[in-house]
Write a structure and sequence with these properties.
The protein has three helices and six strands. The chain is an alpha+beta fold. The longest helix has about 30 residues, at about 25-55.
Length: about 150
């Protein structure tokens, strides 16, 4: 960790040496490597702590994605929620499922959709959510008295 600085005095032919304390390039590189190893170890520890805390947090899941998919359809039919919408929901949210029914309330195409969403989170919390929405789909072809298609 020493460097000898040689300089020539003006007016004389003498060369004088002074000792200056400094780090070598190798020492600086080792110190920087140790610093970054410690920094990344701390970042890894913080990241794993955040993941652990997130898994303990109860997950709130609602039926809005199912309602959004149903709202994209032009036609609704009375009965259960279509299987393809349930499958898409289960693909988007592994470990969760949804179900429900579609009921025509008025003959003008007003439908009531009852939805139930549930599952078990990674932290083993049971999550259940239910909701009802009204969707107006006049193109669905309402049924008149006696169940006849209008």
């Amino acid at each position: 960790m020493q460097l000898i600085h040689l300089s020539k005095r003006p007016g004389s032919g003498e060369i004088s040496g002074t000792t200056v304390a400094a780090f070598t390039l190798l020492e600086v590189m080792i110190a920087v490597a140790i610093f970054f190893m410690a920094t990344f170890a701390i970042l890894n520890l913080v990241g794993s702590s955040v993941r652990a805390a997130r898994s303990l947090e109860p997950f709130s899941l609602d039926a809005s994605s199912v309602v959004a998919e149903l709202s994209l359809t032009n036609r609704l039919e009375e009965g259960e929620i279509p299987r393809d919408i349930i499958k898409h929901f289960e693909d988007m949210h592994p470990g969760y499922t949804c179900g429900g029914s579609i009921t025509e309330i008025r003959t003008n195409g007003l439908f009531e959709v009852e939805l139930l969403v549930g599952g078990i989170t990674a932290g083993h919390h049971v999550v259940a959510s239910s909701s009802k929405v009204l969707l107006f789909r006049p193109a669905s072809g309402s049924r008149g008295p006696g169940g006849l298609q209008r």
